[in-house]
C-alpha cells in the first residue's frame, strides 16, 4: 500500500506561521566571551532591548511537499528519514487528511525500517483515531505483522505470538473481504501453532517430572484452543500416557479412540494404541468425556 506521489490532493490547510526569537550570532558570541556590550547585569529584561534579538517568520513546509519528501525517502530506502518526514506531516497538519496519511505512512516506514515496536504503536494510534477509515484494515495488518516478525523460538515467552494471533483474527472477523485476509488466515495458523507448541513443551516437561495433573492441564489447553494445529495429535497421545499414569484408563482409552478417529494414519495413534495394549486395553471412546466433546464426535 502506497500513495502515489502524483495523487490529486485537496489544497491542504496551511498552519499558522510560528514566530521564533533567535539571538544574533554576534551577540551570542559576545555573551560566550562575557563581552556583549550593554549587558552589565543578568536582568532578563535587558535581553529584549536594542538589536540583540531579531524576529524571523518560519513557515511550515506545505503538506504536499512534505508528503513527496517522505515518498522520495521511501524510494531511496531511507526508512528512518521517511518515518520522521511523515511524522512531521502528522504533527503539522492535525485534524486533516494529511495527518491521516502521514500517520499511516509513518507506520509503514517504521515497519520497513524494522522498528517493529514503533510501528505497532503507530498502527494502534491510527486504529484509535480512524477506526472507520477505508484503509484501517491495513493498519491492523501492519500492527499484526510487527508482532508476527518478533515471534521468538518456542522456548521463550510467546506474548508477541499471542498479540499477532489476536490481531490476525480481528482482521478475519472485521474485514473478511480485505485483501490482507488470506495472508492473515495463514499467519494466524502459524502463530497459533507456535502458541500450541509452547503449551506442548511445558506439558512434556511436567510429564517428565511425573506431575501428571499439570501435564494434563497443558495438553487439554492445546485441544481447547489449538485443536486445528499440528500439535493436536501429539496432545491426544500424551493425554493417553498421562491418564494411564494417573490410573484413569477410561480417559486414556477415549484419548486414543479420538486420536484414531481423527488421525487414523498418525504415528501418534500407533504409539497410543501400543501403549494401551501393554496394559491389556484398547481404544474405546466415552462419549461423555470432555475429550470426545471437544472433537464433536457423534
UniProtKB/TrEMBL annotation:
GO terms for biological process: Gram-negative-bacterium-type cell outer membrane assembly; protein insertion into membrane. One of its GO terms (cellular component) is Bam protein complex. Residues 1-35 form the signal peptide. Keywords: Cell outer membrane, Lipoprotein, Membrane, Palmitate, Signal. InterPro entries: BamD (IPR017689), BamD-like (IPR039565), TPR-like_helical_dom_sf (IPR011990). It is found in: Cell outer membrane. Its main location: membrane. Gene3D superfamilies: Tetratricopeptide repeat domain. It comes from the Bacteria. Residues 60-256 form the Outer membrane lipoprotein BamD-like domain. NCBIfam families: OM_YfiO. Part of the outer membrane protein assembly complex, which is involved in assembly and insertion of beta-barrel proteins into the outer membrane. Part of the Bam complex. Belongs to the BamD family. PANTHER family: OUTER MEMBRANE PROTEIN ASSEMBLY FACTOR BAMD, SOLUBLE LYTIC MUREIN TRANSGLYCOSYLASE-RELATED. This is Outer membrane protein assembly factor BamD.
